[in-house]
Amino acid sequence: MSRIQETFSRLQAAKRRALIPFITAGDPRPEVTVELMHALVKGGADVIELGVPFSDPMADGPVIQRAAERALAHGTSLRQVIEMVAAFRRDDAKTPVVFMGYANPVEAMGYEAFSKAASAAGVDGVLTVDLPPEEAGERVAVLKQYGIDPIFLLAPTTPVARMQAVAKLASGYVYYVSLKGVTGAANLDVADVAKHLDELRRHISLPIGVGFGISDAASAAAVAKVADAVVIGSRVVREVEQGEAGLAGRLTTFLSDVRSAMDRA
């Protein structure tokens, strides 16, 4: 059983929902990323989504775009992000780490070389924003060969045929984008999310995480009532953007508040 599967099984047995925060690797500096990952776990993170910085993050709003720019300004590369996970694993062998990013850096490195290195470092899953299931077959096979879960995005506009295609390829969990638009958008409608999750569960048996539009403890708690996992990205990255002084403690405190609200819900 993979780390992701074990985590969701444990949480489901305890009737709890997974908390999945996102940060961009290399932001605000590559040297502090591992410290921030541990701070997220201390605050209650069950899975960490680690953004691989890319120059054209088309699905991301301005907050995460700026994070990618800061990371790239420090020269953060895909190989460095893999090394960050290896460093994180020296003290944490339990918390799943999922790379979230775009196809270009992995294509440039090569899926075989990437999968081998990522697996050895302790990466558990890969979510490639711009890789649709129709084009993912061979790439998914390589990831799975090295024990890495391929994770896919689903949206309010996803047709049934694509849900079924994702069901055949995905493992670990799937990520439901709660609204049309980019990361950091507002106007989260939890009733609408619940309706779409009901439809998704007719075709997909994996746990479903919900992200985009979740910005505080209250919205996280509301989503926790209908989803298997709550993904928080832009709000966490906004905390990083406020400055490095006391950052790890601020992240821990923010996530602790979110975790408590989710557990109460």
Describe the structure.
With 265 residues, the protein is of the alpha/beta class. The chain has 12 helices and 9 strands. Strands 5-4-3-2-1-9-8-7-6 form a 9-stranded parallel beta sheet.
Produce a short descriptive summary:
The chain contains twelve helices and nine strands. The chain is 49% helix and 14% strand.
Show unreliable segments. none
Ends: how far apart? 28 Å
Rg calculated over all Cα atoms: 17 Å
DSSP helical segment count: 12
What do we call the CATH topology? TIM Barrel
**N to C succession of SSEs:** HEHEHHEHHEHEEHEHEHEHH
Widest β-sheet, arrangement of strands: 5-4-3-2-1-9-8-7-6
Strand tally, please? 9
Percent of residues in beta strands? 5-15%
What spatial form do the alpha-carbon principal axes imply?
globular
Biggest sheet, open or closed, and with what strands and sense? 9 strands, parallel
Domain tally: 1
Structural class of the helix and strand makeup?
Answer: alpha/beta
CATH homology-level superfamily:
Aldolase class I
| CATH architecture name | Alpha-Beta Barrel
- Give the CATH class: Alpha Beta
Could you tell me the mean pLDDT?
A: 94
Helix content: 40-55%
